[in-house]
Amino acid sequence: QVQLVESGGGLVQSGGSLRLSCVASGFNLDAYAIAWFRQVPGKEREGVGCLTSSDQNAYYADSAEGRFTVSRDSLKNTAFLQMDSLKPDDTADYFCAVPRGAGDMFSLCELSESEYTYWGQGTRVTVSS
Asked: Using an 8 Å Cβ cutoff, are 72 and 80 in contact?
């Protein structure tokens, strides 16, 4: 059974950092592209960053570029979202997601919600001013 479980959210002051984790079970995360999305209640979910299945390329939303980093630890079957220089506008529920197939998005990855099949339940990040 494919499962993704996020953790690491919490309350942080503006300018601070958090590292979110996404533990995968039921499949080898190393073979998949991974993406992080966020959603403010009442608003649409938006892509934050993604890492290709080859691990060679990462892409970020303009709002995250230079501040957020997507990575993975193959031995732990876990993906991460390192968030630095956090702002109150980063307050949201954060979700990790993978596409349907291993090897999909080998060289390029998308920040479109429709491209991803498996999702975690989310972890909440609150940035105070």
From this structure: yes
Confidence category of residue 16, pLDDT binned at 50, 70, 90: very high
Q: What is the pLDDT of residue 26?
A: 95
Q: What are the φ and ψ backbone dihedral angles of 95, each rounded to 5 degrees?
A: -125, 140
Q: Do residues 127 and 90 touch, judged by C-beta distance below 8 A?
A: yes
- List C-alpha distances in Å: 80 to 24, 29, 54, 60, 92: 11, 12, 16, 14, 16
- Pairing mode of beta strands 92-98, 34-39: antiparallel
DSSP category for residue 30: G
pLDDT given at position 90: 98
The mean pLDDT of the chain is 96
- 49, 59 Cβ separation under 8 angstroms: yes
**Cα pseudo-dihedral 36, 129, 15, 49, rounded to 10:** 10
